[in-house]
Amino acid sequence: MGNIFVKKPKITEVDRAILSLKTQRRKLAQYQQQLDAVIEAEKQAAKDLIREKRKDRALLALKKKKTQEELLKQVDAWLINVEQQLADIELASKQKAVFESLKAGNNAIKAIQSEINLDDVQKLMGDTAEAKAYQDEINAILGERLSAEDEEDVLAEFESLETEIALHTLPTVPSTVAQEARTGIEDQGRTEKPEVNVVKQKHGDEDLETIEAIEEEVLELPDVPTNQVPGRTKVLEEPLPA
User: Fold this and answer.
1) H helices of 52-174, where?
2) How far apart are CA 193 and CA 215, in angstroms?
3) Cα(28)–Cα(35) distance, rounded to whole angstroms?
4) Among 20, 48, 107, 231, which is 20 to 30 Å from 4 by CA?
């Protein structure tokens, strides 16, 4: 009962042509098998007649064999044509199916695009931009974004870190050179000026702080001019009156 309401597929002219070609191909294949059997039989008959020394009958069998072979070649050509036409029909059917699919897809795109208005799209994009700008303003008010001063502080910290990294990447001084520099500084510190020695001899065993203070006073004294006044020198050299 259920098969009564099943809709049978419609048979088209293409389907009939394909069916006819496939039927003809099957018949040609059967005809090939028959010709092969006849050719093999005529060949065997010719062998038997040759053994019996019946030359005329053997030649007749070979002529029949030759005729069947020519007919077999013609059948092979027919079969090739049938196969080629079947392949062309199948290819054309697939091309038509692809074309129909593309056509249906194009119609679907047009139908969808007809439901979308260009003005509505532009309005939607404008509304989206306004909503984004409004959200940015809200974020700025709520403090989610850095102020101009914060941006400057961040840039300053970046430059400081960049300078620090650059200093760390400088080549290190060899240990021998550093040792020589420290040795020279220590020797210079141990070398005392003549004025400091005089002060130490004058004051004896005074504490280190007093000596350093005196040393600073000696260092701050102005330089004595080297040119002396001739008149004063002569006065000092003359003896005082009795």
Assistant:
1) 55-114, 118-141, 148-168
2) 9
3) 10
4) 20
Structure tokens at 155: 């840039």
Which tens digit of pLDDT belongs to each residue from 52-82?
888 888 898 889 889 999 999 999 999 999 9
Domain ranges within the chain, ordered by starting residue: 10-88
Does the pTM surpass 0.70? The reply is no
CATH class of this structure's domain 10-88: mainly alpha
Integer Cα distance of 108 and 114 in angstroms = 10
Q: What is the pLDDT of residues 185-208, one digit of tens each?
A: 555 555 544 554 544 454 454 455
Asked whether the beta carbons of 72 and 36 are under 8 A apart, the reply is yes
Angle at alpha carbon of residue 90, lines to 84 and 94, rounded to 5°: 145
